Amino acid sequence: MASNSGTVVTRFAPSPTGFLHIGGARTALFNWLFARHHGGKALLRIEDTDHKRSTQEAIDAILEGLDWLGLDYDDAPVFQSKQAQRHADIAHILLENGYAYRCYATTEELEEMRAQQRAAKQPLRYDGRWRDRDPSQAPADVPFTVRLKTPQDGETTISDLVQGSVTVRNQEIDDYILLRADGTPTYMLAVVVDDHDMGVTHIIRGDDHLNNAFRQLPIYRAMNAIEGGWEDPIYAHIPLIHGSDGAKLSKRHGALGVEAYRDEMGILPEALFNYLLRLGWGHGDREEISRDEAIELFDLNGVGKSPSRFDLKKLQNLNGHYIREADDARLAGLVAETLGQTGQIDLLTKAMPVLKTRARSMNELAEGAAFLFKTRPLEMTDKAAGLIDDDARQLLAQISARLTQENDWTTEALEANLKEMAEGLELGLGKLAQPMRAALTGTTTSPGIFDVLVLLGREEAIARIDAQAAPSAQG
């Protein structure tokens, strides 16, 4: 659905008071996909009017997180703080045209009003005490706020693209502040002016903002009456994300910022993109959906009305799928950076086909590759050290002697050689593989043992086995 102008324009508008929250990332994704699906524009606005809490570090984290997810925007970011004069100008236009008024109520008077409302168990809202008073009654040289004169009768209905038809009685919306006593605009005013000035046609955001829509529409309608061209936007309020226990997503459910999924949990951007897409939106039973398919398929009619539950295991399994699908050289570059082995890209690229088969995170992939760069004598896990008993040392010495004679250092030849040895000793191949794995990797889990031998190379593999073999049995 498009506006009268015919072009869909969406916006993502985070407040830079911290990292890019996982819920914000999904909102950004839905806005971006909706714009791309309809051939429209996706815009970004940084709502940095809270000077005390907004930081450059948070702005950088948000921009970096969006870039990592592959969400690009059609114009440079708009910084809300730079539009303050424009916001104030609109408040004065509303004031001059009778849609707003000066309120001289003091902080003490407002607190007394709220105390009375609490005592009477009434909703806490401004009582309109300056709404219809003659300006000549205004005290001299006293600061004032500018309040919007909201409609008091009737009701307002929003046809929300996700929530459906929602109606609120106008008397429930009080005359809220547009300009503070120091002349600075409030969030509620700034958002409306910025959305209008940016040409936003569709406001897609969390359903915790649904009440704000009823507070913001009177500004659109007043300005439309004054100067025209301020059409109501089309709203789509998407349900919030909950934790696996059904409670609102919080720190106790795990990582909240996009960078934590990337840096601490080793999630690939395409996996998080896909997972966030499926968190509250669906297309049949499809789980794995590429970026291009997402653009083709996404529309708001696929967004559910109920909160989604964040399932970390599901994300990890999806990540495992994308690791297996990913280009080996790309994975090698990421792992090389993690391990501080940027000079070993070729070896890691060669290792990826066998390393990535079981990994569900980049961390697991890096851990799985670490054995390639260990130095002798290998540091062993307790489990691995427990496998190297006297019998195992004798066996390793025999394995070393046999491998020293092997000239065809391929997985096929090595497997045939050691299978023959196991049969000769009347042992299962696993009895050879277990102590070999410990000696070669220092752990009890690794890729297939013949892959390990090939990746380490003949010289290093035999040297590692010799380091754990019984000396007397080697000669």
UniProtKB/TrEMBL annotation:
Domain of life assignment: Bacteria
GO MF annotation list: ATP binding; glutamate-tRNA ligase activity; tRNA binding; zinc ion binding
Residue span of motif 'KMSKS' region: 248-252
Binding site for ATP: 251
Motif stretch ('HIGH' region): 14-24
Aminoacyl-tRNA synthetase as UniProt keyword: yes
Domain Glutamyl/glutaminyl-tRNA synthetase class Ib catalytic: 8-316
Residue stretches making up the Aminoacyl-tRNA synthetase class I anticodon-binding domain: 343-467
PANTHER family: GLUTAMATE--TRNA LIGASE, GLUTAMATE--TRNA LIGASE, MITOCHONDRIAL-RELATED
HAMAP family cross-referenced by the UniProt entry: Glu_tRNA_synth_type1
Assembly mode: Monomer.
Protein name, entry field: Glutamate--tRNA ligase
Species for this entry: Allopontixanthobacter confluentis
Organism classification: Bacteria, Pseudomonadati, Pseudomonadota, Alphaproteobacteria, Sphingomonadales
GN (gene name): gltX
